[in-house]
Write a structure and sequence with these properties.
single chain; alpha/beta; 5-stranded parallel sheet; two-stranded antiparallel sheet; 12 helices; 7 strands; 11% strand; globular
């Protein structure tokens, strides 16, 4: 290696510049060294239904439990998973899976095939859920990720044939349970405000989408009646085994409820409804909207 190349190598390493010869005059100038290509900056892609549903979607009529946090969705998931036709795994969070174009050529190539970024993400979501369903050997998949309430428009666009179960619970009970889940992270008022975000998102989804509304209090008090309603809504035969769902394969914080009631393997009574006078002011409008107080 010549001394000029050694100097240039050192310059690039410590300064990011290298010396280049210009023309025939023997003049040397310092210019920025070449760097690795940066990722293509992507704009917000149009969210649109599948162009060819038969080719673009492997799933048929997926089921989404749309609910706030701490509303009994893990219990409902466990009950539904005990049905021979329903596979209801832990929270899947597929809406957070993203696709990126590494180069402009990749973006152009996909555009030529008729795909934008959102289209490709929908293909990925569908493929992940379909693979999980195939591995289960069942007919329909159920996803109960609470954060799906914030993405109901995109989910309904991705799967036009999706079906929805809206799970409600007394807002004050939700807030209390959310506080108890992580009392070191938030006080009771903060827990109520945070949980209310989910409740409002669920209410928006419930107003926009068709589906069956279920209350946690009814599910825990009359599980047979409520599960029969769910099966009728889904066009399935009711199965007694749904009421004794058994041991759960995934008991892990962040993927669903991990506490003793779920570990029991059977439906347990819910907590008593809160005294109306104890309800925080921030929760009272939602309590009225959902019919828990007048």
């Amino acid at each position: 290696m010549s001394w000029q190349r050694k100097i240039n190598k050192a310059l690039v390493r410590f300064t990011g510049f290298q010396v280049n010869r210009v023309g025939n005059q023997g003049i040397s100038t310092a210019v920025p060294a070449k760097t690795a290509p940066t990722k293509v900056k992507q704009t917000e892609a149009e969210i649109r239904p599948p162009a060819d549903p038969k080719a673009d979607r492997l799933l048929t009529a997926p089921i989404f439990i749309i609910s706030p946090v701490r509303s009994g969705s893990t219990l409902l998931r466990s009950i539904m998973n005990a049905h021979t036709d329903l596979h209801a795994p832990h929270e899947l969070h597929v809406r957070r899976l993203r696709v990126e174009f590494g180069t402009t050529l990749a973006a152009k190539a996909m555009e030529a095939l008729g795909h934008n970024q959102a289209d490709l993400e929908h293909l990925l979501w569908d493929r992940v859920l379909h693979r999980e369903l195939v591995r289960s050997g069942k007919r329909f998949i159920v996803d109960k990720t609470p954060a799906n309430a914030f993405a109901y428009e995109r989910i309904s666009t991705c799967w036009p044939d999706a079906r929805y179960i809206f799970l409600l619970r007394h807002p004050a009970s939700i807030a209390t349970s959310w506080y108890e889940a992580s009392p070191d992270k938030r006080n009771r008022e903060e827990a109520a405000v945070d949980a209310l975000r989910y409740m409002k998102a669920v209410e928006r989804a419930k107003a926009a989408l068709p589906g069956l509304t279920v209350r946690y209090e009814d599910l825990s008090a009359e599980p047979e009646r409520v599960t029969r309603e769910i099966c009728a809504f889904l066009g399935l035969e009711w199965e007694p085994g749904m009421l004794s769902y058994g041991e759960q394969a995934v008991i892990q914080k962040g993927l669903g409820d991990w506490r003793d009631k779920i570990r029991s393997g059977t439906v347990q009574p819910g907590r008593e409804l809160p005294d109306p006078d104890s309800i925080l002011d921030s929760l009272k409008p939602m309590c009225r909207t959902w019919g828990y107080v007048e």
